[in-house]
Write a structure and sequence with these properties.
Strand content: over 45%
Number of strands: 11
Helix content: under 10%
Mean pLDDT: 95
Order of helices and strands: EEEEEEEEEEE
Low-confidence stretches: none
Shape: globular
Radius of gyration: 13 Å
Length: 122
């Protein structure tokens, strides 16, 4: 069974940090760009960060630029999202997804995880 599994979410105070992980099972992430998306209650899903299949190209939403870092480890078949200086507006369910290089449209992403909750609150 092909699936992605996110982990690392939780409740942290503003200014804190979290590291999200995205693990693949049943297939290799090599050859896929990986995107992190999030959805807050009552809001549409939005793209947060993307990394190309080679890892050479990364992209961030303006709202997280300078605070989040995406990376991938092909040997472990994992992708990570380091989130620093967290703000209450970063709260939401975070999903990782595998899709084509250079494409940031979530509808073009083939595989999705179940999501991990991130809550930023004092």
């Amino acid at each position: 069974q092909l699936q992605l599994v996110e982990s690392g979410g939780g409740l942290v105070q503003p200014g804190g940090f979290l590291r999200l992980s995205c693990a693949a099972s049943g297939f290799t992430l090599d050859g896929y760009a990986i995107g992190w998306f999030r959805q807050a209650p009552g809001k549409e899903r939005e793209g947060v960060s993307w990394i190309s299949s080679s890892g050479a190209v990364t992209k961030y939403a303006d709202t997280v630029k300078g605070r989040f870092t995406i990376s991938r480890d092909s040997g472990k078949n994992m992708v990570y999202l380091q989130m620093n200086s967290l703000k209450p507006e970063d709260t939401g369910v975070y999903y990782c997804a595998a899709g084509p290089d250079g494409d940031y449209d979530p509808s073009d992403y083939d595989y999705w995880g179940q999501g991990t909750q991130v809550t930023i609150s004092s």
